[in-house]
């Protein structure tokens, strides 16, 4: 095989084939292969004229031999053991200076391990978060790259050519070494979970609180698409709510079973946050809500047994609902970026939070008008690196928080659960109170565990002289 390809793509599933076509359409020669070799020829046929820039290879040896050196090989395969197996198979065929790229939703801890193991062999390993689904992969994803400068030098021209663009700027960046890219993608997905959950909560309040139909809610969400909630997920939500099931003529969402799946990236966000002593209560609520939704049988049995006991309440205004969602979105992003900031310190990545906001403005699932405001905010200075204290964001919250309070009062009174929106407000109210309640927790811990506590007035660790009540 003549070494003519600029890059190799291994894995011709939904995302891999879309990325390969995007690379070919962008003028690069792409070697393609797949574990099931029988997928290759149909892919090339389906590619039409783009097949001129695609080289199908059915063995790993031919695939590697087709690649110009230093080689860049993008794997788009399931994360975990399949990636380790492919690394073991392909490594003997590679030379120092070659780069393996994992474009799947991998656990960043695996990426750090793989990167370290390959460094010893003079090879480079890149963990790249790719966001935007099939449409994004084919016509412009947002990409979050973690790896060496050597690999970025090879990849930058190709990734910038295929990336989504915001005001002409490619939505791709080299964010740091080894696991940095996959970690940022994981937090992206955590924010994605929270945003989807909060939109579903407002849908639930409108449906269960005021009996609004799916198409009516879809029309309302459609009206929000050009306001402060302008975003891909608002577009998606308006579209799916306005869709009709061709078999029954019913609104499509009304025939869909209310049990949410999750491949795990939202959960990983929480695990890593908690490991760093961080909390992302809106993301926690969203992951929890997906878990509770899976208990459909329990919920159906419980409904007639657990009375609402609801108070009478007035539905909030449409304007309040829109502002409440904006407040929730700001709070969930603030929590997500706090986790990124904590990881940047923990792993010495020097993450550029403004740059991350910028490459999320187009192509990715959480793309929104808010991210442009966040990018500007991160370019400025504000206390403690906490987004909710950035001047422009603080003003947006001041305008939106009262609406969130009114929406939550109404929902609580009607017995409609808004776990993520209420978690966001609880976090905000916690962060804006200088004197919290952990002093009582410290007293309790010292009473039964003699764990000690700090005093307000004297330095050092102290213990109480507790006398148990008679
Ligand atoms: C993206 C999405 C994508 C996501 C899948 C399934 O950025 O394109 O986040 O990567 O992983 O849509 O996600 P869940 O099964 O975790 O909901």
Describe it:
This protein is of the alpha/beta class and 470 residues long. The protein folds into 3 domains: 7-178, Rossmann fold (3-Layer(aba) Sandwich); 186-431, N-(1-d-carboxylethyl)-l-norvaline Dehydrogenase, domain 2; 436-470, 6-Phosphogluconate Dehydrogenase, domain 3 (Single alpha-helices involved in coiled-coils or other helix-helix interfaces, Up-down Bundle), CATH 1.20.5. The protein has helices spanning 14-25, 40-46, 60-65, 81-90, 108-119, 133-139, 149-162, 180-210, 214-223, 232-241, 265-275, 281-294, 296-302, 318-347, 353-359, 369-378, 391-414, 419-431, 438-449, and strands spanning 7-10, 30-33, 54-56, 72-75, 99-102, 124-131, 142-146, 165-166, 169-170, 172-176, 453-454, 461-462. The strands form 3 sheets. Strands 3-2-1-4-5-6-7-10 form an 8-stranded mixed sheet, sandwiched between helices. A hairpin with a 6-residue loop joins strand 11 (453-454) and strand 12. Helix 8 packs across helix 11 (265-275). 6-phosphogluconic acid binds at residues 105, 131-133, 189, 192, 261-263, 265-266, 364-365.
List the helices and strands and how they pair.
Layout: E1 7-10, H1 14-25, E2 30-33, H2 40-46, E3 54-56, H3 60-65, E4 72-75, H4 81-90, E5 99-102, H5 108-119, E6 124-131, H6 133-139, E7 142-146, H7 149-162, E8 165-166, E9 169-170, E10 172-176, H8 180-210, H9 214-223, H10 232-241, H11 265-275, H12 281-294, H13 296-302, H14 318-347, H15 353-359, H16 369-378, H17 391-414, H18 419-431, H19 438-449, E11 453-454, E12 461-462
Parallel strand pairs: 1-2, 1-4, 2-3, 4-5, 5-6, 7-10
Antiparallel strand pairs: 6-7, 8-9, 11-12
Helix pairs in contact: 1-6, 8-11, 8-12, 8-14, 9-10, 11-12, 12-18, 14-17, 14-18, 15-16
């Amino acid at each position: 095989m003549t070494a003519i390809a600029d890059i190799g793509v291994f894995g011709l599933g939904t995302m891999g084939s879309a990325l390969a076509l995007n690379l070919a359409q962008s003028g690069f020669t792409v070697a393609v292969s797949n574990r099931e070799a029988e997928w290759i020829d149909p892919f090339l046929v389906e590619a039409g004229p783009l097949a001129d820039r695609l080289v199908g290879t059915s063995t790993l040896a031919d695939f590697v031999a087709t690649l110009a050196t230093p080689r860049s090989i993008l794997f788009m395969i399931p994360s975990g053991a399949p990636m380790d197996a492919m690394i073991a198979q392909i490594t003997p065929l590679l030379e120092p200076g070659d780069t393996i790229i994992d474009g799947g939703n991998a656990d960043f801890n695996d990426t750090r391990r793989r990167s370290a193991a390959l460094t010893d062999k003079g090879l480079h390993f890149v963990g790249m978060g790719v966001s935007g689904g099939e449409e994004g992969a084919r016509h412009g994803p947002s990409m979050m790259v973690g790896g060496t400068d050597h690999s970025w030098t090879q990849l930058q021209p190709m990734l910038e050519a295929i990336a989504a663009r915001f005001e002409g700027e490619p939505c791709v960046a080299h964010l740091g070494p080894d696991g940095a890219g996959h970690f940022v993608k994981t937090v992206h997905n955590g924010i994605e979970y929270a945003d989807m959950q909060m939109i579903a909560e407002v849908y639930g309040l409108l449906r269960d609180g005021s009996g609004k139909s799916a198409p009516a809610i879809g029309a309302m969400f459609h009206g929000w698409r050009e306001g402060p909630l302008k975003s891909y997920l608002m577009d998606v939500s308006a579209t799916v709510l306005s869709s009709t099931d061709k078999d029954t003529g019913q609104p499509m969402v009304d025939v869909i079973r209310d049990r949410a799946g999750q491949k795990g990236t939202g959960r990983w966000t929480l695990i890593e946050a908690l490991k760093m002593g961080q909390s992302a209560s809106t993301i926690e609520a969203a992951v929890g809500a997906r878990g509770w939704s899976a208990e459909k049988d329990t919920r159906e049995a419980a409904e007639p047994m657990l009375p609402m006991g609801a108070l009478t309440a007035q539905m909030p205004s449409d304007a309040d609902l829109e502002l409440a969602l904006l407040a929730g979105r700001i709070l969930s992003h603030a929590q997500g970026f706090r986790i990124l900031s904590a990881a940047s310190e923990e792993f010495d990545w020097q993450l550029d939070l403004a740059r991350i906001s910028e490459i999320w403005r187009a192509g990715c699932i959480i793309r929104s008008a808010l991210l442009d405001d966040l990018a500007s905010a991160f370019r400025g200075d504000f206390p403690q690196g906490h987004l909710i204290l950035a001047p422009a964001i603080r003003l947006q919250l001041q305008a939106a928080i009262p609406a969130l309070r009114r929406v939550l009062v109404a929902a609580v009174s009607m017995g409609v659960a808004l776990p993520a929106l209420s978690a966001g407000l609880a976090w905000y109210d916690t962060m804006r109170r200088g004197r919290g309640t952990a002093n009582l927790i410290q007293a309790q811990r010292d009473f039964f565990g003699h764990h000690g506590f700090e005093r307000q007035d004297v330095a050092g660790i102290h213990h109480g002289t507790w006398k148990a009540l008679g």
